[in-house]
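Figure 3 (text version): structure tokens given as input.
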């Protein structure tokens, strides 16, 4: 095992074409949590490359040559012998024993199981996307965002390889059952979907128990491949289902529905900016901390919007909603309404304005 550790220690790290993310590392012990291909490895390498080569050890824990028992016996003595200050365990799993060191960096798809700080690494939001694709910083940027989504690697792939890349990424990262759930979820995007509904769909395709389905479904939520949006003040109600990235829908199913994809995109921007949101009847997203309602309407019609807001009068008055934000593709307007202020805002302007 010392031979393998020495190999990792002597290798030069390479991180070409790295583009800064909003998330960054400091000198604290940290657990980086993010789905496959979200950029965890690039973030780690970029940080390590700012230090002396002799001061750190980077290990990819997926390396099949690693014997966990031997690693647990040799890793700490190796670090002491070589005066290593920073240990980075990429794709970490809990069987690997940790020990005191100046700094330890862990990355995983799974929830932080240590006392380390947690760094949540989401896929690219719209602002980060523009940094990755600065040449598209014009009227075509949003259309390109719809095509590529938030996976950083998608920017370097030819268009004909993108769907296959995502299929391969998911197949390698998820179990067969989890991948089947993702396919079904792609078909039911933005709908109120219960675990039982997914079970009824999947049992047609394969032999599966409810318990097994529920376990794998929860794993997808825990790892944040899937998100569920709660109904406001009804935590036990069925949640609305969203994917971690809209490009996954394009890669897994042929079924198209622009409105649902647009709503999913808005939800992801809210999540990535840590904005608390809920749904309610007729309301795509309610933001209680901002006293806002956000509606996803790519190609808004003013007459239809007035009717929709009138139907929400009771909710708006009860919860003292200050404004209704209607996120559109490119329409911008302020509508005067006796019940609430209505702002029609293009997605690109709305997404870049969120803090």
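Below: residues designed for each position.
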């Amino acid at each position: 095992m010392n031979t393998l550790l020495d190999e990792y220690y002597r290798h030069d790290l390479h991180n070409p074409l790295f583009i800064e993310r909003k998330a960054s590392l400091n000198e604290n012990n940290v657990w980086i949590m993010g789905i496959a291909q979200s950029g965890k490895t690039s973030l780690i390498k970029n940080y390590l490359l700012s230090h002396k080569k002799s001061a750190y050890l980077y290990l990819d824990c997926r390396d099949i040559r690693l014997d966990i028992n031997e690693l647990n016996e040799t890793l700490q003595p190796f670090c002491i012998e070589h005066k290593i200050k920073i240990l980075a365990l990429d794709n970490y799993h809990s069987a690997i024993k940790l020990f005191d060191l100046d700094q330890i960096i862990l990355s995983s798809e799974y929830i932080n199981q240590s006392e380390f700080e947690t760094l949540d690494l989401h896929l690219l939001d719209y602002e980060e996307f523009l940094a990755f694709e600065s040449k598209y910083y014009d009227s075509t940027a949003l259309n390109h965002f719809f095509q590529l989504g938030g996976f950083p690697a998608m920017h370097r792939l030819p268009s004909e390889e993108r769907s296959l890349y995502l299929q391969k990424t998911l197949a390698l990262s998820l179990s067969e059952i989890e991948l089947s759930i993702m396919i079904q979820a792609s078909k039911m995007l933005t709908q109120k979907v219960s675990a039982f509904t997914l079970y009824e769909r999947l049992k047609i395709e394969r032999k599966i128990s409810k318990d097994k389905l529920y376990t794998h479904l929860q794993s997808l939520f825990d790892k944040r491949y899937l998100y569920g949006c709660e109904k406001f003040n009804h935590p036990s109600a069925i949640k609305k289902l969203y994917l971690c990235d809209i490009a996954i829908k394009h890669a897994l199913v042929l079924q198209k529905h622009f409105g649902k994809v647009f709503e999913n995109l808005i939800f992801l921007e809210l999540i990535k900016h840590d904005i608390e949101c809920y749904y309610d009847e007729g309301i795509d997203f309610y933001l209680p901390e901002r006293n806002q309602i956000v509606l996803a309407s790519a190609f808004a019609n003013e007459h239809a919007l007035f009717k929709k807001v009138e139907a929400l009068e009771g909710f708006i008055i009860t919860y003292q909603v200050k404004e209704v934000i209607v996120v559109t593709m490119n329409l911008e307007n302020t509508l005067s309404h006796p019940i609430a202020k209505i702002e029609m805002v293009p997605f690109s302007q709305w997404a870049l304005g969120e803090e």
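The chain has 14 helices and 13 strands.
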